[in-house]
Amino acid sequence: MAPLPPGSLIVIVGITGYIASHTGLLALKAGYRIRGTVRSLTKAEDLRSAYEKEGLDVSRDKLEFVILDDLLSEAQFEAAFTGADGVIHPALPDLYGEDVVNKIIQSTLIPMRAAAKVGIKRFVLTGTLVSVLTPGSPSIPLDRLITDKDWNEEGVQKYLNATEEEKKSPAFVGVVYAAGKTLAEQAAWKYIETESPPFEFTVVLPAMTWGPKVYGSAATSLTWLWSILKGENSTLSRSPIYIEDVRDAGKLHVLSLHEQEAAGKRIWAAGHPVGWTEILDILRKHYPDQPIPKNPPTSPLNPCPWRIDLSLSTKLLGGKWISLEDCIVDSAKSLGY
């Protein structure tokens, strides 16, 4: 199937989100027409204003918004997708409540079925690193590269075998997220295999995403950095992982619309394996007046000891990721530092 050329109409589900808003910005810059789904038209117009400040043409024929407030409604997805050429789907249902894992699975499959019905040509799904592995797990292989063939079966089993006491823990939402995203992506690939829809399919797998916001309040993923800049060291008890700049994550979503090499692939958005000492050193260099915590004790998990096969995503990005230092400094500026 031919790549989607500039001028094609692309639907971005939940376009006001952190990665999604950057994806929309970069897609407009690449010449695509954008239809963004939103829950609130107020947020939509705030985003339009932010794009306009970037010097982009945000007239109605270039950027339109439609209400989609139910990620389990095939009818709403069909209406949003009708007349479009491609879909980028980063949105997630609420992670709190009942039957969350099934809702994550269905909110992945339902729009895929809708896309097939209306003749979408390319469908890009936002996955996650934790559908591949659980950071800090001793079972992560260190003797080989982590690849797109790996899956977080350990995380799924942790969810399936959880005790009632474990389910009551505040940390269990992370287990639910990992299991839901793993099972949802596996279901998506199974759908591609068994149903042969008319669209080409790509999954982008972000790791820890930092970088400047396009508009609005700071993203949840930046709370780790925010807490460190305030002098809190609780974040440093977490296992370091890979960090990528949100601008690279957005770019990989857009590249997946028109690069033939991306079709049918799981693509890593995971620029840099990091350790807390490296991050803290960068922050001390640029923010010497902030109460940056002391370096944590050395550990086999700090810096991140496992390695991901980034060959395809690095190639798609032209051989270069935004540097960790630029990512951290621009993130801090976005937080008001």
Automatic annotation (TrEMBL):
<keyword id="KW-0812">Transmembrane</keyword>
<dbReference type="GO" id="GO:0016616">
    <property type="term" value="F:oxidoreductase activity, acting on the CH-OH group of donors, NAD or NADP as acceptor"/>
</dbReference>
<keyword id="KW-0472">Membrane</keyword>
<dbReference type="InterPro" id="IPR008030">
    <property type="entry name" value="NmrA-like"/>
</dbReference>
<dbReference type="Pfam" id="PF05368">
    <property type="entry name" value="NmrA"/>
</dbReference>
<keyword id="KW-1133">Transmembrane helix</keyword>
<dbReference type="InterPro" id="IPR036291">
    <property type="entry name" value="NAD(P)-bd_dom_sf"/>
</dbReference>
<protein>
    <submittedName>
        <fullName>NAD(P)-binding protein</fullName>
    </submittedName>
</protein>
<feature type="transmembrane region" description="Helical">
    <location>
        <begin position="6"/>
        <end position="28"/>
    </location>
</feature>
<feature type="domain" description="NmrA-like">
    <location>
        <begin position="8"/>
        <end position="127"/>
    </location>
</feature>
<comment type="similarity">
    <text>Belongs to the NAD(P)-dependent epimerase/dehydratase family. Dihydroflavonol-4-reductase subfamily.</text>
</comment>
<keyword id="KW-0560">Oxidoreductase</keyword>
<dbReference type="InterPro" id="IPR050425">
    <property type="entry name" value="NAD(P)_dehydrat-like"/>
</dbReference>
